[in-house]
Amino acid sequence: MPFIEEHGLWTAEQEAAADEVERRVKELGLRQVRIAWGDQHGILRGKNLEVGHFLSVLRRGKDFQTATLIFDTTNNPVVPPFGAGALGDPRMTGLPDGVLVPDPRTFKVLPWLDRTGWVLSDLYYRSGERVPFDTRGILQEQVGKLALDGYEFVSGIELEFYLARLDDPKLTWQDAGHPPQPPSVSPVAHGFQYLTESRSDEIDPILSVLRDNLVGLGLPLATIEDEWGPGQVEFTFDPQTGTATADTVLLVRSVIKQLARRHGYHATFMSRPAFPNAFSSGWHLHQSLRRADTDNVFAATDGELLSGTGRAYMGGLLAHALECSVLTTPTINGYKRYRPDSFAPDRIAWAEENRGALIRVVGGRGDANTHLENRVGEPAANPYLYLASQIASGRDGMTRSLEPGASADEPYAADAPVLPVSLEAALEHFKSSELLRKEFGEPFVDYLITLKQHEVRRFHAAVTDWEHREYFEMY
Question: Are residues 152 and 124 part of one domain?
Answer without folding.
Answer: no
